[in-house]
Amino acid sequence: MTLLILGLVLFIGMHLLPASVPARGALVERLGFNPYRGLFSLVSLAGLALIVYGKAQAPFVAVWQPPAGMRHLALAIMPFSFMLLAASKMRSNVKRFTRHPMLWGVALWALAHLLANGDLASMLLFGGFLAYSLFAMWSANRRGATLSDRRHPVGRDMMVAVVGIALYVLLLVLHGRLFGVSPAG
């Protein structure tokens, strides 16, 4: 469990740095922009590796038993998570309705997994990412994040949906091999 927690601290801690404009500014000024980005990427990657390895090695400590049907609800939420993640990197109208499609996608991913998993390691992992996503949206809004006013053809929104659902289906098929847990139960 220690490696999972260390990974979460590194990954989320590094991603919280932009919320502190003075701290981020001081680092960029001291290191330079590209070295800062390199450090950000390396620490984030190390944190992610520790999260994956730490979660895989964490003992199963039951905290609560998810009610029947929560896995089905999680499976129903996940396509929207992937569509929002796709929308964060594609031109579409989604950014006219939310300033933070990636953070909403991560929040939905985390919430879906919290609903379906009642063990301590899952609560730390998914609860940590849910809390981070909500804080990051609040923080970005305080710093002036705005909705896009650019309109795109509806076909781009349809592409976001297709890409998001395709990624969801791909991960659904590979979930057992990648994470050792079948999403269907």
Task: Summarize the entry for a quick read.
The chain has seven helices and no strands.
How big is the Rg? Answer: 18 Å
**What is the succession of H and E elements?**
HHHHHHH
Mean pLDDT across all amino acids: 94
End-to-end distance, in Å? Answer: 23 Å
User: Which outline best applies?
Assistant: globular
Tell how many strands the DSSP assignment holds: 0
Whole-number count of domains: 2
Strand content: under 5%
Helix content: over 70%
Main sheet characteristics: none
Uncertain residue ranges: none
**Helical element count?**
7
Question: What structural category do the secondary elements indicate?
Answer: mainly alpha
Question: What descriptors fit this protein?
Answer:
2 domains; single chain; 7 helices
